[in-house]
């Protein structure tokens, strides 16, 4: 897995999405990000518009809480 960028969770529990990630996801101020887990438990972040079958599946399936 290639690391693109790093961000730090603030004391208010907020993250800044690094510019390189915003550009790759083509997201802008006011856009949504979708946070989901894949079958292997890896975190997947995608732009708010579904781009693939996996993205559509993430919209349709509820996120399971980690144990």
| SS summary, helix count | 2
Largest sheet: 2 strands, antiparallel
Strand content: 5-15%
Shape, please? globular
Strand order of the largest sheet: 1-2
Structure write-up:
There is one protein chain. The protein has 67 residues and is α+β, with helices and mostly antiparallel strands. The protein has a domain at 19-53. 22% of the residues lie in helices and 15% in strands. It contains two helices and two strands; from the N terminus they run αββα. The protein has helices at residues 19-25, 53-60, and strands at residues 33-37, 43-47. Strands 1-2 form a two-stranded antiparallel sheet. A hairpin with a 5-residue loop joins strand 1 and strand 2 (43-47). The radius of gyration is 13 Å and the shape is globular.
Key features of this structure:
two-stranded antiparallel sheet, 2 helices, 2 strands, globular
Compile the SSE list and pairings.
Blueprint: H1 19-25, E1 33-37, E2 43-47, H2 53-60
Antiparallel strand pairs: 1-2
Characterize this entry briefly.
This protein has 67 residues and is an alpha+beta fold.
């Amino acid at each position: 897995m290639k690391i693109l960028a790093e961000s730090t969770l603030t004391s208010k529990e907020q993250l800044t999405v690094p510019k390189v990630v915003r550009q790759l996801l083509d997201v802008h101020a006011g856009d949504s990000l979708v946070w989901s887990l894949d079958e292997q438990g890896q975190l997947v972040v995608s732009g708010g518009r579904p781009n693939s079958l996996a993205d559509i599946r993430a919209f349709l399936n509820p996120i399971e809480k980690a144990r």
